[in-house]
Amino acid sequence: MIIEVRLINFEVKEEQNHQKESEQLNFLDETTKEIANEKEKDLGVKSPLQSKDERFGILRNEHFPENILILDTETTGLDNENDDCLEVGSILFNVKSRSVLAQQSFLLPVEINNAEKINNIPAEITRLPQPLSEAIKYFESLVRVSNVIVAHNAEFDKKWFGLKKLPQIEKPWICSMDDITWPADRQLKTRPSVRDLALAYGVPVWNAHRALTDCIYLAEVFIRCSELEKLLIRALEPKVLLRAEISYEDRYLAKNAGFRWNDAIKGAWSRKMSRRDKEKLDFPVHEVDFHS
Fold first, then answer.
1. Residue 234, SS3 per DSSP
2. 85: part of which helix (H) or strand (E)?
3. What pLDDT, in 10s, does the model give residues 108-131?
């Protein structure tokens, strides 16, 4: 009787796994069809792709990442010239299998932590003996085997690398807050917090504010995200800097679209986004040179 029940449970589990795999394959097939159709539109010619194998080949041409390194930092302040990074957390994540391959967190010694009330890391703890040089070497090995770095508010995190003990990272970056357009059915803000993102995908949230904690939140979101491949492909598209051409009365339109006041462009609402997303805006914008 026990053997029979176990066999039934095994068969049910196998059927669930088969259904999940089938759903993922159907989603990828639809994604590649969509990309092919968009290329037809851009080029003005009909795509010769007919078979499913040929359509899946598009994913490779679109630089689909195999492994991503989810990364977060904790710092003593906001200014990378006067403050320091005191903690790095990272998770190596395989996209196809939705699996965590490795994870790491380490502290960097600092004399004072002005952000202790936020990250709860006393400066004296960072100065306790630990194998820091080995930790940094292992971190560099995780970077090497990853195709893309993913961080929530990547512009903030990336500016600490290449300074002091932290190595420069020469890999593409994706910001899960700005570069990824999350599915509308999750009812998220245009620039969601990592905790709002976690809650939207049913990921339990606890109070700890440490680098590895936020990495775990993102990894759990990616595990639950059936559209992850498509979202990453879209996130890697080239970005342009846009200035919103709107009146004071209509400023909410820019704010709701993720534009920020007085940020990249002083005295204006601005945001970096792909030209694909630019076409979806319901207010006029002007492209601005990044270096102007």
1. helix
2. strand 85-94
3. 999 999 999 999 999 999 999 999
Distance between CA 236 and CA 227 in Å, rounded?
Answer: 15
Nearest in space to 143 (alpha carbons), one of 92, 99, 95, 88:
92
Q: Which residues contact 146 (CB under 8 A, 6 or more apart)?
A: 65, 67, 68, 69, 92, 171
- CB distance 56 to 28 below 8 Å: yes
Task: Look at residues 176, 172, 237 and name the one whose alpha carbon lies nearest to residue 38.
Answer: 237
3-state secondary structure of 95: coil
Over residues 221-262, the pLDDT tens digits come to 999 999 999 999 999 999 999 999 999 999 999 999 999 999
Residue 237 corresponds to which amino acid?
A: E
pTM: 0.78
- Tokens 């100065």 correspond to what residue? 127
Q: Are strands 148-151 and 67-75 parallel, antiparallel or unpaired?
A: parallel
Which residues fall within 8 angstroms of residue 284, CB to CB, at 6 or more apart? 244, 245, 246
- In a 3-state reduction of DSSP, which class is residue 223? helix
Q: Which residue is listed with tokens 């790095």?
A: 88
| Model pLDDT, residue 111 | 97
Which pairing describes strands 240-244 and 285-288: parallel, antiparallel, or unpaired?
antiparallel
